[in-house]
């Protein structure tokens, strides 16, 4: 039994399958996510695969500040991902709604609707930061299995430490994580 | 020991050990890895680690599945299991180590078993009631009607030249026979469609129709589909390897090991060939694929079977 548990832990860490969901993003973060999967960064050597169906995915990657139109879709897709699952918020928009804050067409940020596990702040974040976020989410999945998220993790962008970074996005994201 | 008991033991050993389950499941993971790595290298990527298909399988076994009430739910759970069972049976029939285990007509059984996973995929897409699953199933059905004509004609032409539907007799065909090579090339043309590889990957067209018939599958059921796909790889490449491999008279353990090694090496080469083709081509539309099989390759298959019949009537 213990052996099976350890095996499952390793398997979850080494085989994160993604589903990419755009909740009203400007496409900047989407392009960076695709760059992370493309040959230069080659996410597949970490076992990452982009899946077409949310039923196949372990990690839901959400970009965008969650517009009013996207709320239903975000919730539905989250329900369709089978557990154990994790959510990665890519970019500053899902973390804080970024420059669209207080817009009447938004119902964000993302953690109002879903439990977010990893924030990757940046406008847009670099592909290596996105990969670091996905790997972190896979480690969280391996640790906690089907249990819900405890405290979200913030991934530093561009090699800086999120807690001490001067860039606005990192600070905003860190602040939103602390508020939770 | 009576011949019935020894035959039964041989058959069980073939189904369970070599080339059956104990060999075929790791081999299917290895082939899936090899396919992904070959595509990655063609795209100047590193590709997944060696154990990746195994980790994917274990992870999927540990995931939950959505509730599936009613008879449709039971059917949806049953299709991947039927697919795995029949693909494993097909692998077990391959005469890698020529013994007395084969029987007259086992080629027909092998072809039927190879066809079952494809039918399961069609049924699975329709029973999932997902619009994307139904589109994928309709494409799979149209495609299988087109490539199977060529595939079956090619195999029948090889069998007709040998006057036998026994796999072992086909394995014993002399290497230089042009008829054999005509048949093997026709089979190789059909393999990308049978394995849903790139120029003909439209049934499960990733992203385009989500995941085709697999869209609603999750967790252990999806793991079974992956396993069935891997076993199909082993069975289909094994069938070609059986036809192509030079016939060895097995008298000792060394000969048996050599036969096994040649079988694995030829399968390896075919996987590489198909992966390179998959990486180098883009997905065709359904009408182009169907036209390809009905217009271009059918002539080829008709040529093969007519020359086989000609050779047979002359002899």
Give descriptors for this structure:
heterodimer; A: 180 residues; alpha/beta; six-stranded parallel β-sheet; 6 helices; 13% strand; B: 315 residues; mainly alpha; 73% helix
Task: Provide an overview of this structure.
- The complex is a heterodimer of chains A (180) and B (315).
- By secondary structure, chain A is α/β, with parallel strands linked by helices.
- Chain A is 38% helix and 13% strand.
- In chain A, helix 1 (2-14) runs antiparallel to helix 5.
- The N and C termini of chain A lie far apart (35 Å).
- The mean pLDDT of chain A is 85.
- Chain B is mostly helical and 315 residues long.
- In chain B, 73% of the residues lie in helices and 0% in strands.
- Chain B contains eleven helices and no strands.
- Chain B has helices at residues 3-16, 21-42, 52-61, 70-93, 106-127, 131-162, 167-171, 178-194, 219-244, 253-280, 286-314.
- The model of chain B has no long low-confidence stretch (mean pLDDT 86).
- Classes of the chains: A alpha/beta (180), B mainly alpha (315).
- The A-B interface holds A 7-8, 10-12, 14-15, 17, 39, 42, 44-45, 47, 50-53, 55-56, 58, 80, 82-84, 146 and B 36, 40, 43-49, 51-52, 55-56, 58-59, 62-66, 132, 206-211, 214-219, 222.
Summarize the structure.
By secondary structure, chain A is an alpha/beta fold.
Q: What is the terminal-to-terminal distance of chain B?
A: 41 Å
Give the low-pLDDT segments of chain A. Answer: none
Number of strands of chain A: 6
Give the count of helical stretches of chain B: 11
* Main interface by residue count: A-B, 25 and 34 residues
């Amino acid at each position: 039994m213990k052996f099976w548990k350890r095996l499952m832990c390793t398997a979850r860490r080494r085989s994160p399958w993604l589903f990419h969901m755009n909740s009203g993003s400007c496409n900047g973060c989407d392009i960076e996510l695709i760059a992370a999967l493309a040959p230069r960064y080659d996410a597949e050597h970490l076992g990452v695969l982009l899946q077409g169906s949310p039923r196949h995915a372990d990690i839901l990657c959400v970009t965008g500040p969650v517009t009013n139109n996207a709320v239903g879709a975000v919730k539905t897709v989250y329900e369709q991902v089978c557990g154990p699952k994790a959510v990665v918020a890519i970019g500053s928009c899902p973390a804080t709604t970024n420059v669209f804050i207080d817009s009447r067409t938004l119902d964000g940020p993302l953690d109002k609707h879903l439990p977010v596990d990893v924030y990757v702040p940046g406008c847009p974040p670099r592909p290596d930061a996105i990969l670091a976020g996905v790997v972190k989410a896979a480690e969280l999945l391996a640790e906690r299995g089907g249990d819900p998220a405890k405290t979200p993790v913030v991934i530093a962008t561009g090699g800086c430490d999120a807690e001490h970074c001067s860039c606005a996005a990192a600070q905003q994201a860190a602040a939103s994580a602390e508020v939770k | 020991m009576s011949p019935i008991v020894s035959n039964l033991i041989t058959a069980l050993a073939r189904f369970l050990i070599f080339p059956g389950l104990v060999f075929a499941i790791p081999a299917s993971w290895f082939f899936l890895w090899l396919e992904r790595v070959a595509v990655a290298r063609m795209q100047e990527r590193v590709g997944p680690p060696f154990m990746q298909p195994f980790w994917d399988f274990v992870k999927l076994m540990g995931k939950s599945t959505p509730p599936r009430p009613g008879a449709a739910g039971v059917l949806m759970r049953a299709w991947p299991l039927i697919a795995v069972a029949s693909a494993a049976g097909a692998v077990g029939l391959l005469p890698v180590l020529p013994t007395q285990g084969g029987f007259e007509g086992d080629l027909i059984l092998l072809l039927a078993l190879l066809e079952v996973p494809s039918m399961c995929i069609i049924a699975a897409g329709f029973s999932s009631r997902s619009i994307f699953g139904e589109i994928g199933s309709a494409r799979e059905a149209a495609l299988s009607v087109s490539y199977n004509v060529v595939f079956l004609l090619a195999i029948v032409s090889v069998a007709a030249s040998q006057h036998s539907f026994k796999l072992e007799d086909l394995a014993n065909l002399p290497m230089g026979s042009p008829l054999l090579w005509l048949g093997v090339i026709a089979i190789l043309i059909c393999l990308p469609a049978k394995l849903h590889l790139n120029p003909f990957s439209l049934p499960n067209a990733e992203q385009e129709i989500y995941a085709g018939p697999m869209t609603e599958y999750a967790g252990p059921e999806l793991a079974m589909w992956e396993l069935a796909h891997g076993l199909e790889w082993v069975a289909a490449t094994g069938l070609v390897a059986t036809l192509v491999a030079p016939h060895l008279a097995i008298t000792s353990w060394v000969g048996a090991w050599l036969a096994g090694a040649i079988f694995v090496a030829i399968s390896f080469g075919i996987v590489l060939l198909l992966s390179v083709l998959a990486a180098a081509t883009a997905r065709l539309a359904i009408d182009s694929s169907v036209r390809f099989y009905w217009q271009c390759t059918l002539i080829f298959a008709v040529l093969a079977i007519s020359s086989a019949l000609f050779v047979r009537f002359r002899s």
